[in-house]
Fold these 2 entries.
Entry 1:
Amino acid sequence: MLVNSLGQQFGLLSGGCLEGNLLPFIRQAWQKNKSILKTFDFDDSCASQRQ
């Protein structure tokens, strides 16, 4: 999945559910100019961030 500086998304990771959860972390990484590593679990409905 690619996301440009305008927030446009290209490609999918999970068919649509995970992508929406990733956007806040992508914006945070851009603002801080640092990489962020997050782990997500997949359940029957949607991906949720691990605590």
Entry 2:
Amino acid sequence: MYNLLLVDDEPWILKDMEQIIDWQEAGFNIVAKANDVNIAESLLRRQRIDVIISDIRMPGKTGLDLLEFTNRVSPGTLVVFMSAYSDFTYAKQAIEKGCFNYLLKPVNTDELLQTLENCSQRLQERERERRFQQVYDQSVMLLEWIESDVTIRQIIDRITSTGVTFKLGEQYVFMTVKSPEALTEKDLQDIDGLLQSYRIDYFKCRNSPVKSTYLLSLPLLPATTLRKLYHEARRETSARSWEVGISSIGSADHGVHRLYQQSNRMADTSSLNGKSGIYRHRPNVNAAVPALKAQIGKATRVEHLEAAVYDIQKGVQRGRIHLSGLAELYNLFVISLSGLISPGTLGEEDFVTAQDLVIYYGKPQDLLEEMMLRIEEQKKKPGEINAVPIVEEITRDLDRMFAHRISLKEMAQKYYISPNYLSHLFKQEKGKSFINYLIHKRLEAAVSLLEKDISLYEVGKLVGYDDYAQFSKLFKKHLGVSPLEYKQRRKA
């Protein structure tokens, strides 16, 4: 129900307007009637008014004066004017100054109802925008805190300092929900309701259009209750083909960054096994990694690394290697292969992180294929080709399409060479790896966009990063400050 104020210097018009329709049925509550602009201004100062319906021409202050006052004191209030044909000049000025609509006297019932419906729609749009902005502000705030790796207790202190209610609990977990399609607040209402029914406090942030993360404050629940909660959550998420990643349990003094990374990575589990579901971080999530690291470290021939890649593939299939472990093994593989072929040529920029696997490779299988192609390339020892034209073509592609999803494998296929050889050529000509060049191009564009009045989420999306946390992390790694800090410094 929206609050409405009627303003007219003629008492009989006020009375007629009060009785012309069923205001409650239209969704409005007449909170007051005023026959003078000064009275209307006083009411606006004291209470929330959503809509004003006012005459334009009145003795003393006019409706235009009221509109200017409203724009200054209560800019969210919609103003609708009533005017006679002879007041058209006033009506034109009113529209120029931002009135929502005007009605001709005598007021037609159908036109009034249509105007009220339009007012309702506008107010609902504003409320959605307000809620979106609130979610956006909360998300940026929480993700910035996570990157600074404060403790859960510090996070809670900061959350409550913003006026949000969040109770201290006995234990805490991060939960990340990932959808095949864009997530809306409405999509998450069932999850929110389920958490509330078990009296679990939560603070929610939006990572990307398809991913949201919750910080949960868990009460001590009996085992039977936890099982019931798990089955209900599984039913809700499986019906939507959502993936849910849950971190290990932490206390108030645990750092948030590790727990957040755990839930975020577990929500990407389907990229490894192709199955959506609820995945909880386990201490042995990378159980096969230590032995494989030792195997790669002992390799003295390319064939030894080839055998290790097959074993890595088995470990992924059996659920004994997750994304973080796969990234670690890939980096060690690159070091070992480089050491066998041309020692001392590897730079840190050649390494990948677990998030790089999701962003740049699409599927971990693509990374395994690249490892095998690197090995095959070394076995074949291809002849030299003219690298300059190919690298320049690829560079032009990257400069033009950096905001799109681009992978080394796709570019290699386009130019009919192997990913390994393309990587070698690119670094040879540009002095930096393919991925590092792409990152720098994106961040260069991001710096330019941060000068404009665009939200941080939109900046990330416009340069190719749907996941704000990843965008913020890369920005800070390469530029020394987060996107939020950069924007704040520019404003200062």
